Amino acid sequence: YDDRDGKIWMDGQLVEWRDANVHILTHAMHYASSVFEGERCYNGKIFKSVEHSERLIKSGKLLDMEIPYSIEEIEKAKYDVLKANGWEDAYVRVVAYRGAGEDMGVASNKNPVRMAVAAWEWGAYYGDAKMKGAKLDIAKWKRPSPETIPTAAKAAGLYMICTMSKHAAEAKGCSDALFMDYRGYVAEATGANIFFVKDGEVHTPDPDAILNGITRQTVIGMLEAKGIKVNVRRIMPEELEGFEQCWLTGTAAEVTPVGQIGDYTFEVGALTREIAEDYEKLVRA
Ligand code: PMP
């Protein structure tokens, strides 16, 4: 992705794509002092754009990092990037991080907090699985306790085990991995939340040790508006066997049906298809 034409917003300016570099002594590179957002722009409008900017600022606060831009400035930066690249439909990545500076140790209050915004065209996150149902591996790593790391932050450090788990999953021919949490309950995939259907009701994990995704919250609202009961609760891995349908939600994943988790299989059923279609309509409304 680095050597191509285009514009990226860095610390208040649009720069050439291939010149959007950071110094090797950037604090974030060594200590994961970085938070980010993934957003999608549809027909020229970023879905839940302000909610994403708010979450970025909140993630920064959770990492003891004050992002030196207001919501309005972040909003403008995102649209400036889309306009500069001429995109109406794109994935938008905002990243805020501790830069290089006086401190090279763990403490970094003297180093500036920097921000960048890039966007690129990114189709269906799980490719064909979007129609057929994705196959998920069960990750060997566990989502950590909120007493171990601020799990509500969309922070780089939380993704280390995601990359490792996704590599392991892909090596087994799976599209992604499903994590259990530190207590052993069903948690989330490496970049998406999970939902199950049984006997006409929906079940999804409590958001106490996972990222409470903006898509997750949107889909819960859509289901409730249809009068479908959503049970937000602790889900035991043993329960996977009894669920009839399953899907993932996320900005990149949108609503992606799941066909298999480990040895358990699920049908791409009517409700899964209906929610996927409704979500597609909603983001373009
Ligand atoms: N969980 C994780 C670990 C993620 O990376 C994401 C993607 N941001 C999600 C859930 C879904 O969040 P959202 O719907 O806000 O994109």
Care to describe what's here?
Keywords: Amino-acid biosynthesis, Aminotransferase, Branched-chain amino acid biosynthesis, Pyridoxal phosphate, Transferase. Its cofactor is pyridoxal 5'-phosphate. One of its GO terms (molecular function) is L-isoleucine-2-oxoglutarate transaminase activity. Pfam families: Aminotran_4. It catalyses: L-valine + 2-oxoglutarate = 3-methyl-2-oxobutanoate + L-glutamate; L-isoleucine + 2-oxoglutarate = (S)-3-methyl-2-oxopentanoate + L-glutamate; L-leucine + 2-oxoglutarate = 4-methyl-2-oxopentanoate + L-glutamate. With 285 residues, this protein is α+β, with helices and mostly antiparallel strands. It has two domains: 7-120, Aminotransferase class 4, branched-chain amino acid transferase, N-terminal domain (D-amino Acid Aminotransferase, Chain A, domain 1), CATH 3.30.470.10; 129-284, D-amino Acid Aminotransferase, subunit A, domain 2 (D-amino Acid Aminotransferase, Chain A, domain 2, Alpha-Beta Barrel), CATH 3.20.10.10. 27% of the residues lie in helices and 31% in strands. The protein contains seven helices and 15 strands. Strands 7, 8, 9, 10, 11, 12, 13, 14 and 15 form a nine-stranded mixed sheet that branches. Strands 2-1-6-5-3-4 form a six-stranded antiparallel sheet. It starts with 6 loop residues before the first strand and ends with a helix. The model has no long low-confidence stretch (mean pLDDT 96). 4'-deoxy-4'-aminopyridoxal-5'-phosphate binds at residues 38, 154, 188, 191-193, 211, 213-216, 249-251.
